[in-house]
Predict the structure.
Amino acid sequence: MSDLPACTVERDAPVARVQLDPASWVDVVRGFVTEADALYDHLVATVAFAPSEVFRYDHWKPEPRLGAGFTPATAPHPVLVEAQRTLQHRYRVRFEGGAALVWYRDGSDSMALHRDRDMRWLDDTVVALLVLGERRPFPIRPLAAKYDHEAPDRGATHVLRPGHGDLVVMGGATQRGWQHGVPRVDGRVGGRISVQWRWTSRRGRMERGGGYAKPVHFGRG
């Protein structure tokens, strides 16, 4: 245990709220976790990150990032358990099933703009992201903007750049009416790890259709 980075959660770090619309918001906390770069290195060295694939039209396609997961009992560093407890207390939710880890190894790894539809109930959610490693653009756009192919910045109304221990929390109906992602940048950019916790109240209208990982097939003409 003595080799673990001496990381702590800064519970009193200022919270800046971005009100996307009356029902949707994003909180940004800079420096939520201390010694974040050392934590990033520790996770890269110790977590068994693995590739994944999605089926798109006629073939399996590798996703441009690696993933892993953990529960409080298997957390790769105790500060992640402390972070989960702090978030549950602050937002009065309970993250069942632990958390996910996503590793963007360099600027070539990415995640398309999307909503977290796999939670199914999207009217009242909390999605918390602890971002370690290099800062990358994190655009947020209204769902309607996905159909405007000429819009600058892909229709993003906000572009956050979390990293080095920052926290981003998307709440309310953000997953219903807004999209977020990690676009590809210069491949020489250093790595980024996102530690992700998700909660839904299971109230409101259930989302129809599958999430991002659902297979996509050619339409029938």
Q: What stands out?
A: The chain has one domain: 16-202. The mean pLDDT is 92. Helices lie at 36-46, 78-91, 174-177. The chain has three helices and 14 strands.
